[in-house]
Amino acid sequence: MNWDPTDTQALLDTVDRFARDALVPHVNDWDAQATFPRGLYREAARIGLLGLGYPEALGGTPAPWRARNAVSQLLARRTASGGLLASLFSHNIGLPPVLKHGSPELQAEVVPPVLQGERIAALGITEPGAGSDVASLRTSARREGGDYVIDGEKVFITSGLRCDWITLAVRTDPNNKGASGISLIAVPCDAKGLSRTPLHKMGWHCSDTGHLRFDGVRVPARYLIGEENKGFRCIMGNFNGERLAMSALALGFAEACHDEALAWARERQTFGEALIQRQAIRHKLMDMRMRIASTQAWLDALGDRIDAGDEGPDWVGHVCLLKNHSTQAMQANADAAVQILGGMGYMRGTASERLYREVKVMMIGGGAEEIMKDLAARQFGA
To answer: Whole-angstrom Cα distance, residue 204 to residue 261?
Structure first.
């Protein structure tokens, strides 16, 4: 893959224009309406956003992680809306297992329409009784002739109400209650027996989040992704990419909080002078910049490593810790920004208020902080 810094800058210029013209003017309305137009997927696809990092043969544009992270960071900084980006790009957690482990026929059926913005893909892992403990999932898929028959439920599924395809984690070995009995299956969401219920959340309002129930859902056995009973490792590998992308988003959101706080501090007059003249405010702003700079350096270093082919245990451990570090930076910056904005920071329509509500899902989704620390410790042999 031939890629140089000028390619990244040209891409970022295009993304910046798209964000400013097509996203930023509408973010507050979409948040209030708890949705955004389905046509936005096609608009994003038209400039190549949905296909970034995917093979040309399937309609994508190969790109290094360093460039993809920069795009995620920029979109987060401009939109300050995790709900928008989570749903618009839910295919980036739903499609990678299909791409890495699915048959060529399955890839050709599922991937191109999603990258064109005509179909929506999602990932179904979490269950009411099995979140980070993936090995405890109960949703089952039994083989009947040439089909799998699926029963069970999934919860907290991003794009769960809109998705046309869902990469679903199921238990295919009823005699094995651990990790080795799990498989992945691509499920078309118009299948009979699948019902969906919306969930209402603290944040991410414009992201549709669903509770999915599978009652005898029958899908062709050819929709199996990878080997039967070997899906757990695929799921764990997929989490690494998700966590790296979430770190880039959290960094962008931390920047959005700093941008808003700085602009407000320069404009707001208190006791006859601008708020930024107060030493306490300047110190808060410098703390925010410090968190941004440290996260940026770590993210770039790990992006360079995966682009060089380094995805070993040490890299995985660092990704886990970066996910914690970046979301903690977002949390601290959101808190500082709301404090600097004062009463305005508590008002709907400010980036800081929205991100203050959204930060907890970033700290929990993709692996909660406590899980990340334990997983990192295992990778480092601690």
So the answer is: 21
Question: Could you tell me which of 149, 141, 151, 97 has the C-alpha nearest to residue 123?
Answer: 97
Query: How large is the angle between the packed helices 65-79 and 5-18, nearest 10 degrees?
Result: 30
**Number of helices and strands in the chain (H, E):** 13, 10
268 and 275 Cβ atoms separated by less than 8 Å:
yes
Is residue 354 a contact partner of residue 203, using CB atoms and an 8 Å limit? yes
| Average pLDDT score over the chain | 96
| Cα 317 from Cα 377, distance rounded (Å) | 7
Instruction: List beta partners, residue 214.
Output: 152, 194
Q: Are residues 44 and 92 in contact, defined by beta-carbon separation less than 8 angstroms?
A: no
Q: Residue 84, Cβ neighbours under 10 Å: how many?
A: 23
Alpha carbons 300 and 72: distance in angstroms, whole number:
13
Residue-level length of the chain: 382
Cβ distance 241 to 54 under 8 Å? Answer: no
Q: What is the pLDDT of residues 178-224, one digit of tens each?
A: 899 999 999 999 999 999 999 999 999 999 999 999 999 999 999 99
H/E run at residue 124 = strand 121-124
Q: What is the percentage of the chain residues whose pLDDT exceeds 70?
A: 100
d(CA 214, CA 112): 26
Task: Select from 207, 261, 241 the least CA-distant residue to 34.
Answer: 207
- Structure confidence at residue 367 (pLDDT): 92
Which tokens sit at 67? 């460039």
Ramachandran angles phi, psi of 31, nearest 5°:
-65, -45
- pLDDT at position 1 is 65
Instruction: With a cut of 70, say whether residue 277 has pLDDT above it.
Output: yes
Interval 346-357: pLDDT, tens? 999 999 999 999
Under the banding of pLDDT at 50, 70 and 90, the label for residue 177 is confident
Whether this prediction's pTM lies above 0.85 is answered by yes
Pairing outcome for strands 182-188 and 269-270: unpaired
